[in-house]
Amino acid sequence: MIRMWNKAREMAELAPPTRNRWVDFLRAMSIMAVVVGHWLVAAPYVDGSGAVQGGHLLGILPWTQWLTWGFQVMPIFFLVGGFSNGVTWAAQLRDGKPFSDWFASRLQRLINPVFPVLLAWALFAFFGTQLGVSREIVKMATFLALIPVWFLAVYLLVTALVPWTWRIWKAAGLWSVAWLVACAVLVDMLTFFYRVPYVNFANFLFVWVGVHQLAYAWVEGRFERLWRPLALFVGGIAALIALTVYGPYPIAMIGVPGAEITNSMPPTIALLALGVTQAGLVIALEGPGRRMLENARAWTATVLLNGMIMSVYLWHLTAFVLVMVAAWLLGGVGLQVEPGSLEWWLARPVWFALYIAVLLPIVGVFHRWERGFGPARDGRPVPPWRLLLGLLLICLGLAMTAAISIASQEGVTGVRIWVVALPFVGAALVGFGPVYRSSLR
């Protein structure tokens, strides 16, 4: 750990003074909030018959649904992603470099960390099936551990659209955000009032591109006057309260078991309102945040965390599953406590310490995948057809992993090999190279 800290300190010292450190801090903190939220909301317990039940805190204690307004911070990740994409794509245009190089680089950094976790759980599903473990248990464990990959599929699609969204931004400015909001509203109307099937999936793009588009305004200094992000925050929170407290949308910003409507899968305009609220808040705090990060230790910690943040995100539910399995094998120790009780809350620090103790060595082994592995490219731009096909295969594989799981209840292997193979085939088409990039690029 000391070695990693020293390396992060060296990298921190190399950061140019013009770098917006607040963006890096927000990227790391948003993912950590997701990790803590996942660990908190999952509340498995052993019932009176000795069977393990998959409790969900938001269903057990409805008041905790309000906490999702703070823990559902994927909008912040899309916001800071849009800031980074806007800065780097503008530089790409100035240098006259092709889109294929820019996108392949960003695609590589995001998809490489997925390969080891995907392979690990594919092996678990295969050997678990061969050893006679219940296929239902194998599928449940695999599904839970790999849920985080869903967002990568959406984020990659949003990133692929950057040349067009940037061009639209340059032409229409904040009107481009307004049009996306209008499209998201239309989708929700068609979904909830006219019951049009499947149209709600369009909001995966309208909502997340809308938040991403706001970042372009941030990049170009549209929020330098404090009243503007504060107005964004006030408008967002007013819309959020109107839609949830007084409107038809649920309070929870993530899915709740048994709920008729979910704000996140697919996203609704309520989640978009939350994204606007969070964007206004974090942009308003940019000044104090950047001053805080002038401290060498705070900035070094930010660099260290960003260097492994995707590994933390992708493996944190694996750590959770491993701890739960260990507790179950030890006779259900700690799992007889009723979720939501005082005793349950007092035990959270102990459980979190166990999750962290399991997660840290895993991240220590696999975080190097964030720096780039794969066969060397010959330096020529990736042909557009390969880039597009590779992207589609990767996104389809990740979406299917989260939607139907890589574990199968049929067949000899117990693995949906085609689902596992799709991201690897897509990456091969893009032609990744062994470029070791720091988190500061």
Structure description:
The chain is 67% helix and 2% strand. It has one domain. The protein has a two-stranded antiparallel sheet. The chain has helices at 2-13, 21-41, 57-60, 68-71, 74-95, 99-111, 114-130, 135-146, 150-160, 162-172, 175-192, 203-219, 227-244, 269-284, 286-292, 296-306, 309-329, 342-366, 384-404, 417-430, and strands spanning 42-46, 52-56. By secondary structure, it is mainly α. The model is unreliable at 373-377 and 433-441 (pLDDT under 50). It is built from 20 helices and two strands.
Topology record:
Elements: H1 2-13, H2 21-41, E1 42-46, E2 52-56, H3 57-60, H4 68-71, H5 74-95, H6 99-111, H7 114-130, H8 135-146, H9 150-160, H10 162-172, H11 175-192, H12 203-219, H13 227-244, H14 269-284, H15 286-292, H16 296-306, H17 309-329, H18 342-366, H19 384-404, H20 417-430
Helix pairs in contact: 1-16, 2-5, 2-16, 2-17, 5-12, 5-14, 6-9, 6-19, 7-8, 7-20, 8-17, 9-12, 9-19, 11-12, 12-14, 13-14, 17-18, 19-20
The largest sheet is: 2 strands, antiparallel
State the end-to-end distance: 23 Å
SS-derived structural category: mainly alpha
Q: Could you tell me the strand content as a percent range? A: under 5%
What are the segments in which pLDDT stays under 50 over at least 5 consecutive residues? 373-377, 433-441
- Proportion of residues in helical segments: 55-70%
Shape: globular
**β-strand number:** 2
Evaluate the radius of gyration. Answer: 22 Å
Arrangement of strands in the largest sheet: 1-2
- Name the average pLDDT: 88
The number of helices is 20
Write down the secondary-structure element order.
HHEEHHHHHHHHHHHHHHHHHH
Number of domains as seen in the coordinates? 1
